[in-house]
């Protein structure tokens, strides 16, 4: 019922919200509605049908080249604000695996004086991120860089990332929606799901200052192994944060 209401309202030709009690056929674009129903029946997520997904305070453009921003990833923004409450600071922020740009752009809106760099290995993902940057923070320049991690070594105050962290086995257990409509490269972190954490730990010491903080999302049951990886590079864990499901997430 909820999905049907969303589809009706997304294909509505009137301004007010459609509810079943006052629903009239002439209030929707029937052709668009039928097309949306057909696509949804093929397991295509509503976000991909209408190229829109809400994250933090904003509505982001999404397509098959990027992951849908997840509600649990908002925890990254919350924790950054907790540790860096002065929003007028001239911070240097790096977003690794930016995808749709949801983290970089949300932080750009929170920290108006920040200098932000966002990287991704996918050219198609960076095109989506640029679309969102143009729409949501056109007054703020974000430097988008195509690379696996980052080539131009600099130091940053804040590093955020929602990296690929599913193991091969975990990916095989995901839904048809995910496997058919989200980029595999943004989901799988090697055989054990930890490949990215090993890679980033190897170069973090070059881009961290004594006051830098890394905010990195982790998968379920990965906390112990990820902490071990970072500890081996003498990077201290300040906090292990749980999401709304009480799972270790950051």
Description:
- Its EC number is 2.1.1.297.
- Residues 82-173 form the Methyltransferase small domain.
- It is an enzyme of class 2 (transferase).
- This is peptide chain release factor N(5)-glutamine methyltransferase.
- There is one protein chain.
- This protein has helices at residues 2-10, 30-41, 46-50, 74-83, 102-110, 123-136, 168-172, 176-181, 195-207, 223-231; strands at 53-55, 58-60, 92-96, 115-120, 142-146, 156-161, 208-216.
- By secondary structure, the protein is of the alpha/beta class.
- 37% of the residues lie in helices and 15% in strands.
- Strand 4, helix 6 and strand 5 form a beta-alpha-beta unit.
- It contains 10 helices and 7 strands.
What keywords describe this structure?
peptide chain release factor N(5)-glutamine methyltransferase, 7 strands, 15% strand, five-stranded parallel beta sheet, 37% helix, single chain, 250 residues, alpha/beta, two-stranded antiparallel ribbon, Rossmann fold, 10 helices, 2 domains, globular
Distance between the termini: 33 Å
CATH topology of the largest domain: Rossmann fold
Number of domains: 2
The biggest sheet, with number of strands, parallel, antiparallel or mixed sense and barrel status, is: 5 strands, parallel
The amount of helix comes to: 25-40%
The number of helices is 10
Compact summary:
This protein has 250 residues and is α/β, with parallel strands linked by helices. The protein has helices spanning 2-10, 30-41, 46-50, 74-83, 102-110, 123-136, 168-172, 176-181, 195-207, 223-231; strands spanning 53-55, 58-60, 92-96, 115-120, 142-146, 156-161, 208-216.
